[in-house]
Amino acid sequence: MPRGNDLAAPGRIGHMDTAVVTGGSRGIGRSVAATFVERGAHVVVCARDAEELERAVADIDPSGEAVTAMRADVRDEFDVERLVETAARAGDAAGIDCVVANAGVFYGTPGETAIEAVPYSAFDDTLRTNVRGVFTTVRESIPHLTADARVLVPSGRIAREATDGYGAYAVSKAAAEAVIRQFAAETTWPMGVVDLGMVETELTDHANGRDPGDIAPMFWWAAVEADPETVDGEIVGLREWKRATR
Model pTM? Predict the structure, then answer.
């Protein structure tokens, strides 16, 4: 891929008209979508389970005006293509200002899932969802990104520091970080990793950690307020967010 679109230059957004959040029916994705809506953005969310997604959207946006829900599977590039095409037309202005490639799976129990015990089918689907899904989401979004758009992928320390019991999930997060770094190197849009630390979600089997609602504003900061250089090809976490916003 050539180095991005010559018309697209990284810059400070200062606002967000339209965002895409994958895996938006629960946990981090749902909280990020709610935070973006509270701050004035139109958010297009997707998940595999259409009924669960509709319930989440009804809670996030009772008016039905600020959120567009689409049943989509990030493992399927045609689903993602339709998702981003819809998002590009959803807001007041054409295009997508932010993409949060959040959809992910974990087969097993966090801290108790040894990699040698992971079934091949679970390993394959973890990588297909958590790695290929990120690749597909970013690739399909690129034709619709506005000049100052940003792309964010949530991750954590297990992507860089091997931790017993996280199996294929840890492998997939390391690979997802590599995917976003490569896109950052080869395009002109700021694309980076948001390190959340431990978050209490269904994906982590409700392990002790931060509430998703408490860390969701970090995504707004990374998408709108942080300097582009702070985000592009980098890992930003609680330390950077708190230092910048205190």
Answer: 0.91
